[in-house]
Design goal:
It is found in: Cytoplasm. The protein is of the alpha/beta class. The chain has one domain: Alpha-Beta Barrel (TIM Barrel). The chain has an eight-stranded parallel β-barrel, surrounded by six helices. Helix 1 packs parallel to helix 2 and helix 3 packs parallel to helix 5. The longest helix has 17 residues. The protein is globular and about 45 Å long.
Length: about 220
């Protein structure tokens, strides 16, 4: 198992500095991580830092609470694509999920997907599994499978509960094989990272990626 290729090396704090981004990108290139996941204003810069390496640049939209208007998420998506982001981690409208407004959620993803596909980008939809009921997680999997998103992602890292093995297993059981799972939020040890991969995660969002890699040796 090449653990490094599972990892999105991540910094999304609102206090993130340019030096933080430079260091993150240098570490990502050194360890050949799958991607860096960073705030939108740093996308252009991160692209220059990672250069022509295997490491992709991911950013977030609708972050961290997901209740931005669809029009706002469209604008964020377009701007991220203009800045040459490779992957977009979009927070689903969590208010709509908790209130059972599946019609709104369908409209949201149906509006975003053509933009993503037209530009050949990767989309990961964040559902914040740690605060959802099992039936809500299953319903999300069914909806996003219908629209053939690339990944369903467990968490933003901002809720009281992040990734869990149980949530990843539930998602894997309710998603078609071609849709991947990104686990994120609270992944701090090699042991937990491996548990999540064994449960079905194919990408991990981590801020302590280097420490996890050192522990895997």
């Amino acid at each position: 198992m090449l653990l490094n290729r599972y990892i999105d090396h991540t910094v999304l704090k609102p206090t993130t500095t340019l030096d933080n981004i430079r260091q993150l990108c240098m570490e990502a290139v050194e360890y050949d991580f799958a991607a860096v996941c960073i705030p939108p204003p740093f996308v252009k810069l991160a692209k220059t830092f990672v250069g022509n390496t295997n490491t992709k640049v991911a950013t977030v939209t609708g972050f961290p609470f997901g209740y931005s208007a669809i029009e706002a998420k469209v604008a964020e998506t377009v701007l991220a694509i203009i800045d040459e982001a490779d992957e977009l981690d979009m927070v689903a409208n969590l208010l709509a999920i908790r209130n059972g407004d599946w019609e709104y959620l369908e409209k949201e993803i149906a509006t975003i997907m053509p933009i993503i596909r037209n530009k050949g980008k990767v989309i990961k939809v964040i559902i914040e599994s740690g605060i959802l009921l099992e039936e809500e997680i299953i319903r999300c999997c069914q909806l996003y499978a219908k629209y053939q998103v690339d990944f369903v992602k467990t968490s933003t890292g901002y809720a009281e509960k992040g990734a869990s093995v149980a949530a990843v297993k539930l998602m894997r059981a309710n998603l078609p094989a071609n849709i991947q799972i990104k686990a994120s939020g609270g992944i701090r040890t090699f042991e937990f990272a491996k548990e999540l991969i064994d449960a079905g995660a194919t990408r991990l969002g981590c801020s302590g990626s280097v420490e996890i890699m050192k522990a895997s040796v």
